[in-house]
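Final report, Chapter 2: Outcomes

The project's central promise was a pipeline that accepts a single protein chain and returns its three-dimensional structure in a standardized token representation, suitable for archiving and comparison. That pipeline is now operational. To close this chapter, we reproduce one record exactly as it appears in the project archive, with the input sequence first and the structure output second.
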Amino acid sequence: MRGTVWAVANQLGVVAGTPAELLSALLAGPPRTVRLGGAGHDPDEVAELADVLREFGHVRVVVEAPDEDAPVSKPGDDGPVDVADAEAVCAADPVRVTAAYEAADDEHGGLRSAWLRAGQSLIRDQDPARRALVLRTALPPDADPRIRQALARSAAAAPWHMEWAGACPIAALTVLPGGAPVVADPGGGVRVLPDGGREQSTATRVRAAAASGEDTVLLLDERGRLHRHGGTGTALTKAVAATLARHPGTALAAAADVVLVGDRMGSVHAFGSDGLHQAALHSGRVTALAATASPSLTVRTGGTDGAVRVWSPADGGHGSTVSQRSSPVVALHMGPTPQGPALAAAWADGLVELHRPGRRDVLGFRPGPAVRAVAVTPDGALWVGTEETLIRLRPR
């Protein structure tokens, strides 16, 4: 069933691993038509999923007739898949691998749990090196070292090098001016990596985080209120907090002496020492903001309309589009690098992109689970956070 759910979720631009999660994602959006079935899908699984999705009447389900010339993949078709062999798994048909792991009881050195965690990414059409990279990021802590080594060899041709991955629930990420990453967890805990202890903030259910000075982190909670963690409050942060107490925000960023806030109507507000600058930049809610002050104030904005835009508070205007996709933007972060500001962006369908200064090529990565936060470090590394894991990647 997982393979069918993942395929449908990829088709619809959402992240889901079970029929219930898929239904929940669909109920959160407008009514739509969902097409199920077709070549390679198990008719029994398709029928079961169709019944679940039809139950609430929010979606119109169309079941396509199976293609008789395209048989359904089964675990034993075209010879058995050696699900204990990391290199073989990365090169095999992902639908068959998924079915084999669903039917298996053995963890196979951690491969099974890693595949079932990251399967929505792995089931996509891609080369074995990229699959190996994703599997490495999803391995459990007690995975067999030989599996880790085999996946590292297979991932050597991927465009990313995985530097670290571990269990760590993430709600938001930011980076202090000195380059240290800061992690905010869903319960409001804040930790400076790599060795800082967890400190409880006044925020609960954190939505966004932004560094404001060497020792100050601003947090936006799920109600759109501003919280300060560490450092000393300033007249600016107090004014922004008072404003958001009356008019809740939906996204947050900070750079130098400017605090940026998005709202549910698609507008971005820049609070600074020279006053308030604002612009209507998105159709629908602003979901993510990013800013850097080096060499000058640069702002990127993201929304439920799937657009990432560049905006200059001083110049006003509506901004130009950096990237446009059909899924809502869920996270943005900008980091100053020696070549200029680098931008990390993530969307609700699980895609992360890294836009590097002076480069036309955009590097993509899909961890499998839904992405909650991203951050770029001054040395060009990329942090990717999900509800369960934190991953550090570096472009090759």
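Archive annotation: The CA atoms of residues 346 and 352 lie 4 Å apart.
This record, like all others produced under the grant, will remain available to the consortium after the project formally closes.
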